[in-house]
Amino acid sequence: MKPKREKYDFLIVGAGVTGLAAAMYGARLGLKTLCLGTTHSSEMAIGGVITTTNIVENYPGFIRLSGPELAEEIRKHAESYELVTLMEEKVQKIKKNEDKFEVTTDKNSFEAKTILFATGTKWKKLPPEVRGGQDFENKGVNYCALCDAPLYRNKVVCVIGGSDTAAKDALVLAEHAKKVYIIYRGEKIRAEPINQKIVESNQKIEIINKANVLEVKGKQFVESVVLDREYGGSMNLPLNGVFVAIGHIVLSDLAKTLGVKLNEKGEIIIDHKTSETNISGVFAAGDVADKPFKQAITGVAEGCTAAYSAFEYLSKNAH
Fold first, then answer.
1. Catalytic status, residue 148
2. Total domain count for the chain?
3. Using CB atoms within 10 A as the burial measure, which of 5, 130, 281, 283 is most buried?
């Protein structure tokens, strides 16, 4: 005889700030809520991508705090409600069974009346054509500046990428390294104006524009990168560490398998007023959804909207 599945009104896949905020609102609305995340993987990690951010200065109510601190405050708030359960489990499959959803994790199985995908994104890795890029992962090639910057105290590092994330990573690294290069294929990095100004005024940071990394070289650990153009009289740039900030991959495979519609970027298509997807009872919010402006505050707002929409859906479809 199979064990009975624990039943929930509102099951959230992903325990970043979006999922945690949704859990809090779900509980406030009286929904028995389960939020599933992991600590053993960068995918759907508890706290989410914000935990890899050193300083957050654009979240209302907090002038300045770290990403991990913000995530912890939201987690504690969510778990202060008796109706919220946070579990460290990775969802493997979701199946619709009439008007319910069967959710299978690496440890258990559950039944839910509504589902919220708050699965977020993960870092893009260096493409295979960059020789040595994958060979030197964890040997000098890194994806989290906040996590690994202290390992490069008084050393030379580079950040590959030209986004605001790349700029912020360079600033974190400059607190430890003696020299930080930003290597970007475009003419000018695309950071937020305030971060761009800080980067350009930091004497430890040097921007190499119109350049691509062709190869990561070294023996046991990274010793240099090879560029596709000369810089400082050479195409070989000696350094000790490489930090990759070339964007993120949307974690929407679970939703796709369930039949949720995605756009060409792999983002879940939602009704931006309700966070609803094309499947009744299924919602999405945060970085996994198809909104162009993605911040912790917008993800939290979408998560709260999704919780309210789930509540309304359940109210209309009460059995």
1. yes
2. 2
3. 283
Co-location of 240 and 104 in the same domain = no
The alpha-helical segments, DSSP class H, found in the chain are: 17-28, 67-79, 145-148, 164-174, 193-201, 253-258, 296-316
Q: Which of 9, 35, 144, 169 is catalytic?
A: 144
Alpha-carbon span 316 to 222, nearest angstrom = 59
In sign, the C-alpha dihedral spanning 224, 226, 231, 232 is positive
- Dihedral of CA atoms 10, 106, 80, 75 in degrees, nearest 10, equals -100
Catalytic residue among 9, 35, 148, 287: 148
User: Is 304 designated active site?
Assistant: no
Mean pLDDT within 253-268: 97
Q: To the nearest 5 percent, what fractions of the chain are helix, strand and coil?
A: 25, 30, 40
The size of the chain, in residues, is 319
pLDDT band at 251 (very low <50, low <70, confident <90, very high): very high
Q: Where are the alpha helices (DSSP H) in 112-176?
A: 145-148, 164-174
Model pLDDT for residues 90-106, shown as the tens digit of each residue = 999 999 998 899 999 98
* Catalytic pick among 147, 228, 253, 271: 147
What's the domain range around 64?
6-122+248-316
Cα–Cα–Cα angle for 53, 275, 103, rounded to 5 degrees: 85
Please state, in angstroms and rounded to a whole number, the distance separating the CA atoms of residues 10 and 33.
Answer: 5
Helix (H) or strand (E) holding 214: strand 213-218
**Do 10 and 155 share a domain, yes or no?**
no
User: What does the radius of gyration of the chain's CA atoms come to, in whole angstroms?
Assistant: 21
Report the DSSP pairing between strands 179-183 and 121-123: unpaired
Single pTM value for the model: 0.83
147 a catalytic residue: yes
